[in-house]
Each structure stands twice: as C-alpha cells, then as structure tokens.
Amino acid sequence: MTYESQADARIGGSTTMEHGASVQTDRPILEVKGMCKTFFTKERTVIALDHVDLAVHQGEFISLVGPSGCGKTTLLRIIDGLELADAGERTLEGVPLSGISQDMAYVFQDINLLPWRSVLDNAALGLEARGMSKQERRERAMEVLEMVGLASFAGSPPYTLSGGMQQRVGVARALAVRPKVLLMDEPFGQLDNFTREALQIEIAHLWSKLGMTIIFVTHDVDEAIFLSDRIALFQPAPGRITEVVNVDLPRPRMEYDVRAQPRAIELRSHIMEHLRAGKGMPE
Asked: Which distant-in-sequence residues (6+ apart) come within 8 Å of 231 by Cβ?
C-alpha cells in the first residue's frame, strides 16, 4: 500500500482535504497533559514548561508560536520522546507513551543529512533503523522522493543540492516511515524568503493530499497563519501556552494572497499583541 492509499484509508478515502477541510475526530490523536520541564545551570534555573496541556486532532495542522526560549522546541522534543519531562503525560490514540514513538517522525531545523550517502539512502535512513529490508526501504524512499519532487536526484550526494532541496530530503526521510504525527521544528528557519515560501506551499500540498497530522514550530507569524488550522501561543518565564487561536481562513490558501486578507491581518495583529503582552516577540 502506498503512502497515499494508506492516508486515504486512514481518513476514509475523503477528498475534502484538497479543499481545505481538516479531517478531525472528537477524540484527539495526540494529547499532552500537565507537561513540566526545568533546566538547571550554574547561573540559573529555567522553567522551560509549566503544566502545558495540548490536544491535537487527526488531520490537524497546528503551529507552536512564541519567542525564543519559551519552550516550543522543548515541548516538541518531549512529544517525540527525544527529551524527558519532569512531570506530565503524553498519549497517542489514547495510549500512554514512553520513550521515542515509532508512530511519529521529526523534521529538524538542522537537516543533518549524511554526506557519504546518496539522497535515496538518506531518505531511507529511518526505515533502515526500523529493520526494513534494503529493497523495500529503497522502494519506499523512492516513493516519498517522488512526492517532494526529488526522484531525479536519488543517486546524488546531498551536498550537491540547494538548501531548500536538502530540507525536502529531510521531509522525505520523515514521510518514509509513514508517521501518524509529523513533528517539524522550524524546518524553514535557515532558508531565504523565496525558498521558504515555496516550501510552505509544498508542505501545504502534502498535508492536504495525505491527510497528515502536523505539529509545526515557527517564529514566523505569517507562516503559521498560512499553514495552520490552529496556533498555540507560548509565553516564556515560565514557558506555557496562554492561548490557542483558530485560523478561520478558507483553504486552499496557496490560491490567494493570505497576508492581504482582512481576517489574516486581524489574526496577525491579535497574535503580535498577545506575544508583546507576554514580554516576548517572535524573531
């Protein structure tokens, strides 16, 4: 079964995602409850997360927005199991999680491709770690490279690709494991504006086509508004979610100038005012 057919089965074969309607169920696919995390250094104690709650539904695109040091990435890493919390719990489809979940995949800001491996083999890296046979993982990796438009570069070393293309390999690597939840940590933060906007559109297309559930960390308010169903606003010292904003703009948003819409301007103004009130501004 291909990724597309698997996604269709998961959302009941619905085509509404292409028209911008998120597929959600009453019960969240992912829940975080009472999450706490404190870091201790010689100079100070930092409360990164203070009893954070978050519920994410099947097929939802939710962004975490706030200033540096407010706990966004820490929460994402805890959700994936890369970081241990001091308190709190996380559940996936109602089942408590411990350690790294095989049902989630993480796209890092630093792409971390292996320069001695081809694009294809980099895309297959997560499958290799799961013990999949060489033939099957190469077929799966080629499938996702087709999705992100890089099949013709499968045999190339990653250092011959542009920064945007390398990040697409990172996305392909995450998609190859067919995650129930895709976690993206400022994946476009180091790219130029033109490349960044092009990849935003690509991610919007993939999300729409595959019915993925995505949690996306960003400092960029406009990026969050363009991509998201909801935006969780963080404030620092201690890190906490202080509001969750519904992005009630029609989809598909790549078909019009989102930033010029009066509702988008209202949302941006509200979010910026909220972040200023929390003594933190997005970069």
From this structure: 62, 63, 64, 65, 224, 225, 244, 245, 247, 271
Helix, strand or coil for residue 43?
A: coil
Handedness of CA 232, 237, 239, 240 (dihedral sign): negative
Check: CB of residue 61 under 8 Å from CB of residue 227.
yes
- What integer pLDDT is reported at residue 153 of this predicted model? 96
Domains of the chain: 3-103+179-277 (3.40.50.300)
State the pTM of this model: 0.88
pLDDT in tens, 133-150: 999 999 999 999 999 999
Q: What is the pLDDT of residue 15?
A: 34
Closest of 73, 65, 91 to residue 275, by C-alpha: 65
